[in-house]
# Entry
Amino acid sequence: MAPSDWFYPLTPSIRYVQEHSGPLESAIADETFINSGTLGAYGIAEWFAHSFKTDREKEVLNSLVSESFASPTAATIKANKINYFSPLMDKLVIKYLLLNKRLIEHEKILDVPGTVIGLAQPLPGNSWRQHISMPGDMMIGYIGFVFATSNKEYAPAIRAEQA
# Structure
Protein backbone atom coordinates (compact mmCIF):
# COMPACT_ATOMS: atom_id res chain seq x y z
CA MET A 1 0.00 0.00 0.00
CA ALA A 2 1.33 3.45 -0.93
CA PRO A 3 1.85 6.01 1.86
CA SER A 4 -0.63 8.92 1.78
CA ASP A 5 2.19 11.49 1.54
CA TRP A 6 2.94 10.16 -1.95
CA PHE A 7 -0.43 11.56 -2.97
CA TYR A 8 -0.58 14.45 -0.49
CA PRO A 9 2.97 15.83 -0.17
CA LEU A 10 3.49 18.55 2.43
CA THR A 11 4.59 21.54 0.33
CA PRO A 12 5.77 24.88 1.80
CA SER A 13 2.50 26.58 0.82
CA ILE A 14 0.36 23.83 2.37
CA ARG A 15 2.45 23.92 5.55
CA TYR A 16 2.08 27.72 5.73
CA VAL A 17 -1.71 27.57 5.40
CA GLN A 18 -1.90 24.79 8.01
CA GLU A 19 0.22 26.76 10.48
CA HIS A 20 -1.55 30.09 9.96
CA SER A 21 -5.21 29.07 9.63
CA GLY A 22 -7.44 29.68 12.61
CA PRO A 23 -10.76 28.16 13.59
CA LEU A 24 -13.50 28.64 10.98
CA GLU A 25 -11.03 30.02 8.41
CA SER A 26 -11.04 28.36 5.01
CA ALA A 27 -9.32 28.30 1.63
CA ILE A 28 -10.12 28.01 -2.05
CA ALA A 29 -7.84 25.87 -4.23
CA ASP A 30 -7.90 26.09 -8.00
CA GLU A 31 -7.83 23.21 -10.47
CA THR A 32 -4.13 22.70 -9.72
CA PHE A 33 -5.46 20.51 -6.90
CA ILE A 34 -7.77 18.70 -9.37
CA ASN A 35 -11.13 18.85 -7.54
CA SER A 36 -12.00 20.86 -4.48
CA GLY A 37 -11.76 18.87 -1.28
CA THR A 38 -8.13 17.87 -1.72
CA LEU A 39 -7.11 20.35 0.99
CA GLY A 40 -9.30 18.41 3.42
CA ALA A 41 -6.63 15.70 3.45
CA TYR A 42 -4.36 18.32 5.03
CA GLY A 43 -6.98 19.45 7.54
CA ILE A 44 -7.69 22.70 5.65
CA ALA A 45 -11.36 23.68 5.39
CA GLU A 46 -12.89 24.30 1.96
CA TRP A 47 -16.41 25.49 1.19
CA PHE A 48 -16.21 23.81 -2.19
CA ALA A 49 -15.08 20.44 -0.76
CA HIS A 50 -16.44 17.33 -2.46
CA SER A 51 -19.88 16.69 -0.93
CA PHE A 52 -23.58 17.00 -1.60
CA LYS A 53 -24.75 20.62 -1.48
CA THR A 54 -28.25 22.02 -1.50
CA ASP A 55 -29.39 24.03 -4.51
CA ARG A 56 -29.19 27.20 -2.38
CA GLU A 57 -25.62 26.38 -1.26
CA LYS A 58 -24.61 25.86 -4.89
CA GLU A 59 -26.27 29.14 -5.87
CA VAL A 60 -24.32 31.03 -3.19
CA LEU A 61 -21.02 29.29 -4.00
CA ASN A 62 -21.52 29.82 -7.75
CA SER A 63 -21.84 33.56 -7.08
CA LEU A 64 -18.34 33.39 -5.58
CA VAL A 65 -16.87 31.09 -8.25
CA SER A 66 -18.86 30.83 -11.45
CA GLU A 67 -19.18 27.51 -13.29
CA SER A 68 -17.60 25.71 -10.33
CA PHE A 69 -19.61 22.51 -10.01
CA ALA A 70 -18.41 19.85 -12.45
CA SER A 71 -20.79 17.24 -11.00
CA PRO A 72 -23.50 17.11 -8.31
CA THR A 73 -20.80 16.67 -5.63
CA ALA A 74 -17.51 17.93 -7.08
CA ALA A 75 -16.29 21.43 -7.84
CA THR A 76 -13.41 22.38 -10.10
CA ILE A 77 -12.19 25.92 -9.53
CA LYS A 78 -10.71 27.94 -12.35
CA ALA A 79 -8.77 30.96 -11.11
CA ASN A 80 -10.30 33.25 -13.75
CA LYS A 81 -13.82 32.31 -12.55
CA ILE A 82 -13.26 33.47 -8.94
CA ASN A 83 -15.01 36.72 -7.99
CA TYR A 84 -12.10 38.13 -5.96
CA PHE A 85 -14.05 41.21 -4.90
CA SER A 86 -17.10 39.32 -3.64
CA PRO A 87 -18.22 40.13 -0.08
CA LEU A 88 -18.53 36.35 0.34
CA MET A 89 -14.74 36.17 0.70
CA ASP A 90 -15.15 37.81 4.10
CA LYS A 91 -18.52 36.30 5.00
CA LEU A 92 -17.27 32.75 4.38
CA VAL A 93 -13.96 33.59 6.12
CA ILE A 94 -11.87 32.59 3.11
CA LYS A 95 -8.36 33.47 4.21
CA TYR A 96 -6.27 31.73 1.56
CA LEU A 97 -6.40 31.22 -2.19
CA LEU A 98 -4.13 28.45 -3.44
CA LEU A 99 -3.71 29.20 -7.13
CA ASN A 100 -1.30 28.21 -9.86
CA LYS A 101 1.12 31.13 -10.21
CA ARG A 102 1.80 30.47 -13.90
CA LEU A 103 -1.92 30.53 -14.70
CA ILE A 104 -2.38 33.79 -12.79
CA GLU A 105 0.50 35.45 -14.64
CA HIS A 106 -0.57 34.07 -18.02
CA GLU A 107 -4.24 34.99 -17.67
CA LYS A 108 -3.62 38.24 -15.74
CA ILE A 109 -6.22 37.13 -13.21
CA LEU A 110 -5.94 40.18 -10.95
CA ASP A 111 -5.16 42.69 -13.69
CA VAL A 112 -6.97 45.93 -12.92
CA PRO A 113 -7.64 48.21 -15.92
CA GLY A 114 -5.68 51.44 -15.80
CA THR A 115 -2.97 50.01 -13.53
CA VAL A 116 0.57 50.95 -14.52
CA ILE A 117 3.43 48.90 -13.12
CA GLY A 118 6.76 50.69 -12.90
CA LEU A 119 9.70 51.30 -10.60
CA ALA A 120 9.40 53.69 -7.68
CA GLN A 121 12.23 56.07 -6.89
CA PRO A 122 14.84 54.83 -4.38
CA LEU A 123 13.89 55.20 -0.71
CA PRO A 124 14.34 56.69 1.88
CA GLY A 125 15.48 59.82 0.05
CA ASN A 126 12.12 60.13 -1.67
CA SER A 127 8.56 59.91 -0.50
CA TRP A 128 6.30 57.36 -2.13
CA ARG A 129 2.59 57.77 -2.67
CA GLN A 130 0.16 55.27 -4.13
CA HIS A 131 -3.29 56.27 -5.28
CA ILE A 132 -5.87 53.50 -5.05
CA SER A 133 -9.23 53.50 -6.78
CA MET A 134 -11.87 50.97 -5.74
CA PRO A 135 -14.90 49.97 -7.85
CA GLY A 136 -17.13 50.48 -4.78
CA ASP A 137 -17.25 50.05 -1.02
CA MET A 138 -15.30 47.01 0.17
CA MET A 139 -13.60 45.65 3.25
CA ILE A 140 -9.82 45.40 2.87
CA GLY A 141 -8.16 42.54 4.73
CA TYR A 142 -4.62 43.48 3.76
CA ILE A 143 -2.61 45.45 1.23
CA GLY A 144 0.61 44.15 -0.24
CA PHE A 145 3.34 46.03 -2.07
CA VAL A 146 5.88 44.58 -4.47
CA PHE A 147 9.26 46.29 -4.33
CA ALA A 148 12.00 45.85 -6.91
CA THR A 149 15.60 45.76 -5.77
CA SER A 150 16.88 46.65 -9.26
CA ASN A 151 19.41 43.81 -9.38
CA LYS A 152 20.82 44.59 -5.94
CA GLU A 153 21.17 42.04 -3.16
CA TYR A 154 19.03 44.17 -0.79
CA ALA A 155 16.59 47.03 -1.21
CA PRO A 156 18.51 50.34 -0.87
CA ALA A 157 16.49 51.38 2.22
CA ILE A 158 17.22 48.15 4.13
CA ARG A 159 20.56 46.69 5.04
CA ALA A 160 21.00 43.02 5.82
CA GLU A 161 22.25 43.73 9.37
CA GLN A 162 19.03 45.62 10.12
CA ALA A 163 16.65 42.99 8.76
In short: The CA atoms of residues 26 and 45 lie 5 Å apart. The helical segments are 4-7, 12-20, 55-64, 88-91, 101-107.
